Amino acid sequence: MSHLISVTDKAAADTSVGTLIREWRTQRKLSQMELALDIDISPRHLSFVETGRSKPSAELLMNIASQLDVPLRARNTWLLAAGYAPRYSEQGLDTARMAQAKAAVQRLLDTHDPYPGVALDRHWNVVLHNRAAEKLMGLLPPELLTPEINIFRASLHPQGFAAYTKNFSEWGSYLLQVLQRLMLSGRDEDIVALVEEVHAYPNVIALKQQTPLTQTTEPSLLIPCVMELYGQELSLFTTLTTFGSPRDITLHELCVELFYPADTQTEVFLKAMGG
């Protein structure tokens, strides 16, 4: 059954919509003047909205949210905080209405085989995967498989993929930057907790204490993940894909990560493994 996000978000109950707008505007590093000009209202009107002296219409809220690139989940929170009904549904991935979208993503992943591919939710938990990815996930210890596989946890934990990653200094630093951006992009307590967790890993602590290496050779076009698996050195780069025009929160937050061989040796090996 189609449903809209329920009023369980503490931010909606405890925070005024004006405060939420100001927090997102500050995060996007825009002044009231700049934002007001962008959405064609007076700075005075925007100031009144942020201070609670004026109640914004639902359309004005959505215009501001669009300009600030606020995620759909947070837009529902804004609407609830202002006393309006939420506009964006949140269908479960296994519901009937999501069947076509889910099938399309799984088809994309299966077509990508024998190269690894996964679909990720907003916390970068694996929700779908192909056979090649399943083989890689089989290398993880049981504690990293439950309650779900999280890419950051699985890749940065010293007993996870980090144990096989030969260029952990580069790849780990890249993942930490992605996780940091994810934390700064929204108010999500689970992401904050995940950041605190991975930053406590001994290998991540050691990584943060390293002095950046001076580049002595021409830099590569992409940072690959170089792993030692089955006595073979594999080099993979990754791409991220999202839905183009989602109006559902689940689809808006879903992304597909596809790994590709970065050299001929890796390509030959993965094709042989998938054969």
Summed up, the helix count is 14
Poorly predicted regions are 1-13
Query: What kind of sheet is the major sheet?
Result: 5 strands, antiparallel
Radius of gyration, in Å, reads 22 Å
Shape, per Cα inertia axes:
elongated
**How much helicity do the residues have?**
40-55%
Spatial separation of the terminal alpha carbons: 41 Å
CATH domain class name of the largest domain: Alpha Beta
- Structural class category: alpha+beta
Order of helices and strands: HHHHHHHEEHHHHHEEHEH
The CATH architecture category of the largest domain equals: 2-Layer Sandwich
Strand content: 5-15%
- Major beta sheet, strand line-up: 2-1-5-4-3
CATH topology of the largest domain: Beta-Lactamase
What's the mean pLDDT score? 90
How many E-type strands?
Answer: 5
InterPro entries: Cro/C1-type_HTH, Lambda_DNA-bd_dom_sf, MLTR_LBD
Protein name: Xre family transcriptional regulator
GO molecular function: DNA binding
Domain HTH cro/C1-type: 21-75
SSE layout and pairing:
Blueprint: H1 10-14, H2 17-27, H3 32-39, H4 43-51, H5 58-67, H6 72-81, H7 99-112, E1 117-120, E2 126-129, H8 131-137, H9 151-156, H10 168-184, H11 189-198, H12 202-209, E3 225-229, E4 232-242, H13 249-253, E5 255-261, H14 264-274
